[in-house]
Structures
1.
Amino acid sequence: MEKKWWQEAVGYEIYCKSFCDSDGDGIGDLRGVTSKLPILKELGVTCIWFAPLYASPQADNGYDVADYEAIHPDYGTMEDFKELLDLAHSMGMRVIMDMVLNHSSDEHRWFQESRKSKDNPYRDYYIWRPAKADGSEPNNWGSYFGEGNGSAWQWDEVAGEYYLHQYGIKMPDLNWECKALREEIYGMLNRWLDFGIDGFRLDVITRLKKMPGLPDSLKKPIPPMDRNGFVVDRNMCTNVEGIHPILRELNERVFCREGCFTMGEGAGVTPFNAAEYILPERRELDSIYHFQLASRKGPRLTAEQFRTVQKNWAKVGESGGTYIQYLSNHDSQRQVSQHGSDLQWRTRSARLLGTLIHTTPGIPFIYQGEEIGMVNVRFDSIEDYNCCYTVGPYHAMLESGMDPATALAEVARTSRDNARTPYQWNAEKNAGFTTGKPWLKVNPRYEQINLEADLAAEDSVFRYYQSLTALRREHPAIVEGSLTFLSEDDPDVICYTRSCEKETLLVVANLSEREREWEIPHPIRGRCRCLLCNMEKKIGLTGEKLSLAPWECAVFAVE
Ligand code: NOJ
């Protein structure tokens, strides 16, 4: 089958609000991004994913869209976006837009119309239900953001009914059963492709279809997040039967267009149901990213977990499906803090984690700042946090009787703001992100951790990532090779080969703070030439054992 451009891509997610501010208002913008395209090119990026850039009241930093066809004024204008797009294309980089199709903002014109009356032509664009006889919510579903009384239903005075919102109160769910809504969305998506973008990252795409009849969840509420008897039950709206016809129609009407790449956010997608979404013959999505490695609240990644997840997904790959490799994005913690060692072995573990992502099958996505080893932040006051997943749970914990210091510690570790603090360009004021007051405080460690310092350092994470992206360009086994794990019982050392007709590569990584010896399997003894190492280069694997320092990793060509 002919290769698609995205199969060899190196992705990079930009959270515009925190990337680079060109006009001093404290908020990152498109001109700021345009000024930094050369550095992304140098890194080896070939596909940029923009978190939502659309006009929005910013209740969830843009995932609450008020107009899908306008750029948010803080970020610039449509002309600024066009300039950025053209420049990116001329430099050989594609651009995909985040598309939020599960919900809009309550300030969207559709919603404003919809609430007006039952016979308004937009009424069915959203999910309205009358109150129960006692005035209570239509069912017991809870919302992910846990605002208000915890329900996923909000009473609307104007409409005289409740509307469904899986996320924030200001983010009403769109009704995909409504044909007029679907037509409206297809038109909008096609206009974006006509504009010249290269595809879409599809926000919570597995949640468009709701359980028919909207029945009560039978799960027991688990406080403090489930409050007042409401239950956050993913099964009510995730991967519900009937999601696939929706995706097939989207594909038929939009995604099938030449060159268009789609990457779905795969909440609830596992290797066991992924094929239905991404096998090419299904004509639904080109790729999916899953949560089995990068879960915001999860513990540190272990060698065993890594092997299991990669092995299961590799089977999906062998049957023709494409998936994304990543360890962090705008919803997660900083990967070096969650899975590596953000003090003693910061750069070394940052380089190791990058190696795992860039040498396993799939499309690697880098999240801004990862390439310089940016770390989690800890603010002293809840006032300094912005993320709704942080502030909401904090208040729920206080309500349940927890003391403020414990509640703050609890939410700070997993806060999405860890990933959202401004990009650290240099050691100047505000890390060179803005000349104004940043919308979210800069991580105080910016004086040591910033791009300028990183580029000048011997153990530069950025330079190492450049080598990783070069490896992908130069070695076909990285893109198309099969994956085989060796030493499968080792608690710390991950070891695998990638093999295609032309070559075999070997990756060895010590995922621990201990020095480790790794026994070199007989068939490859004396045959390995080091291509890349996150410490000093290992010359060749001649003896019986390879000794690995804490967090050391290396990539070899097996000759
Ligand atoms: C997933 C997005 O990545 C996240 O940032 C957002 O809050 C939710 N979807 C709701 O749109």
2.
Amino acid sequence: MASSTRRTFIEKSVKAGLAIGIGNQLLASCKNSKLNISKPTTGIADFTQKPLAYAYNALEDVIDATTMEIHYTKHAATYLKNVKDAVAELSETQRKEVSIMSLLQNISTYSTKMRNNVGGHYNHELFWQCLRPKQNDNKPDGELLMAIEKSFTSFNDFKLQFSDAAKNRFGSGWAWLYVDANKQLKIGSTPNQDNPLMNVSEIKGAPLLALDVWEHAYYLKYQNKRVDYITNFWQIVNWSFVAQQYQLASK
Ligand code: MN
């Protein structure tokens, strides 16, 4: 895609509300393009908490309403407040340059406070969009399903591998489906609020699907049973959103 065409595409994507995908689009295209990723963009790439697309009780009985409300209005809101505080502590020159993407991609040059909170903000904004009210036989279709089957043998094998990544993450962290630099689907996990966009991460790429395995995400309903939370998670994955992310990241 020529860079002018790509810019037009990005503008259209933003207008179409594919805001979170802009990060992936930028990541996917930054190798060959002169796009300035440090410019603030909309949606995930800005310093706001987007309204949830569903009610707090809409994900029951996989995730209870109280957990959703506390998670969104307290935990996630605090990451955003703290990342704004961390940005306010930067020099005036640095402040002019910052965007969520530029912070994540250069996170090794910032404070631990910035790392934890910009990660926390990005990860939660992505996570909310990865969820939807539960559906029977919830699974992806089309190109995404084919890519998953090609990379992981079958959708079932994919779920097992992703679930293992989520179960085996010691302590607090996230499990991910992401597209690496070779446009291959990969599964992995990160500690704390790190993510595959960070230059310090062991796994690197464009996130498609995120699962929060911090205890605050499930403890009220599941207590110590992280495995049950992960098993039930599959009923509420928003595969339409993940497919949209895949389209943006894999082109
Ligand atoms: Mn969380």
